[in-house]
UniProtKB/TrEMBL annotation:
Keywords: Signal. Residues 1-15 form the signal peptide. Gene3D superfamilies: Periplasmic binding protein-like II (3.40.190.10). It comes from the Bacteria. Residues 18-232 form the PBP domain. It comes from Thermus filiformis. SUPFAM superfamilies: Periplasmic binding protein-like II. Transmembrane segments: none annotated. It holds the Pfam family PBP_like_2. This is ABC transporter substrate-binding protein.
């Protein structure tokens, strides 16, 4: 498994704890950004990669100073709860339905993503869910609901794991899954899974945000946010591995409310 770039502080006063979604971790983006941030500021970062729901829970307990997440509804809830110092949208990409090249449910021919999910359910083709209250899992649940399907039974599996591990399980089981575009490109594509439904669709928009925690290491967290929103930070995000993420320059395209 790729070694995550994690720096632990020589001086505890400068430590910054970042809880991040596994999709960002698995893409390798932080390995590109954080060494430069430390070089520029002297602030070293300890990274904890978990699902978005868990990342926000960790931040709420002040066991992290910032959280990089992708679930607007949960982010809005955190803001309403009053523990978020600042919130900014950093980047976007898209969710994809990926699966075996044989495509037994004929997802490629589906007119829209909701019909693609209905086809998977009707044919009872294996589908692997994150099942971990991550941003990807919440999006998957939203899509099943809009499709009018209650997934369950032997064909519906839960990994309880991060995006990279979920893609590996989907490959092993010959199953479909919902993935963010970046982790598919860095993990799923190499395994032999195919992106079967890739059409532009507002339902599949995936927005990443950084939340700073009140009463935590606010100064260091602000420096990280400033770096990520700077022209240099946004340029590096947009250029990473040929454009796996599109920078948002702090402007949200999905409402956080």
């Amino acid at each position: 498994m790729r070694l995550l770039w994690v720096l632990l502080l020589l001086s505890p006063a400068l430590a910054l704890r970042l809880a991040t979604t596994t999709s960002v971790y698995d893409s390798g983006l932080l390995d590109d950004l954080l060494p430069l941030f430390t070089q520029r500021t002297g602030v070293r970062v300890e990274v904890l990669a978990v699902g978005t729901g868990q990342a926000l829970a960790i931040a709420k307990r002040k066991d992290a100073d910032a959280a990089l997440v992708h679930a607007p509804a949960l982010e809005a809830q955190a803001i309403r709860e009053g523990w978020v110092l600042e919130h900014a949208c950093l980047a976007k990409n898209a969710f994809l339905l990926v699966g075996p090249p044989q495509d037994p449910a004929r997802v490629r021919q589906a007119p829209d993503v909701l019909e693609a999910l209905r086809r998977i359910a009707r044919t009872q083709s294996p589908f692997v869910s994150r099942g971990d209250r991550s941003g990807t899992h919440l999006k998957e649940q939203e899509l099943w609901q809009k499709a009018g399907v209650r997934p369950g039974g032997a064909w519906y599996l839960e990994s309880g794991a991060g995006m990279g591990q979920t893609l590996r399980l989907a490959w092993e089981k010959g199953a479909y899954t919902l993935s963010d575009g970046a982790t598919y490109q860095t993990v799923g594509k190499k395994l032999g899974l195919e992106a079967l439904y890739t059409r532009e669709d507002p339902l599949l928009l995936n927005q990443y945000s950084l939340l700073l925690v009140k009463g935590a290491k606010e100064e260091e967290a602000r420096r990280l946010l400033d770096f990520l929103l700077s022209p240099e930070g946004q340029r590096r995000i947009g250029a990473f591995r040929g454009g796996l993420f599109q920078p948002l320059f702090g402007r949200c395209v999905l409402p956080v409310r």
